[in-house]
Amino acid sequence: MPTSSRSLALLVVVVCLFGAQGLAEAQTAHRRLIFVQVDSVLAADTHEGVDTRLASMGPRLQSLFNYTTYRLVSHQGSRAEFGKLVAFTLPGGRILHVEPRAIDGDMIAMELVLFEGQKPLMTTDLKLKDRGVLIVGGPRYAQGMLIISIGASSTDDSGTARAASTAPAETTTTPAETK
Question: End-to-end alpha-carbon separation of the chain, Å?
């Protein structure tokens, strides 16, 4: 093999190696994180009104459910990478697994699994609008119903969530709607 052909082949190999390394670094630098927020709300008929911490969500809850009291029981948030599960501990021994799968435009695809102990109560795959909220009504809890609000927003490389929109998308589902 002539020297110029060997030099050209070596140059091509070196360019490919550095190009692959640069591509891998670019993909790592631009990985997408999802910030997931989970609020657990106890809804009951005790005539105590809406918890002040639920001020922005109160009218929505009242329009979807027929209770006189809405009280925030827990508020949790976590960052999650695509394909990696994040778990939230909910009241009553329940656990919610959220696994972001992909993002397509302004839609976040994810899988949700709600457990009571080891037993899955609900499994669903869904697409939620970026900065949107899914409200799950049920199961029964204490003197009423446990309502779970699940919000998701894409984040930048530092993990900072994008600003929430003033009118997030909503979907309502119940434990009976399973995969």
Answer: 61
Which pLDDT belongs to residue 94?
A: 93
Confidence check: pLDDT of 90 > 50: yes
Handedness of CA 108, 111, 114, 115 (dihedral sign): negative
Q: Which residues pair with 38 in a beta bridge?
A: 76, 150
Residue type, 101: R
| Distance between CA atoms of residues 127 and 169, nearest Å | 11
Alpha-carbon distance 111 to 98, whole Å? 6
> What's the CA gap between 42 and 105, in Å, rounded?
34
Taking the CB of residue 153, how many other CB atoms lie within 10 A of it? 22
Going by C-beta distance under 8 Å and a sequence separation of 6 or more, which residues neighbour residue 58? 50, 51, 70
Name the H helices within the chain. Answer: 3-29, 58-64
Triad 152, 154, 155: Cα angle to 5°: 125
Q: Is the pLDDT of residue 105 over 70?
A: yes
Token output for 104: 């397509």
Average pLDDT over residues 82-88: 96
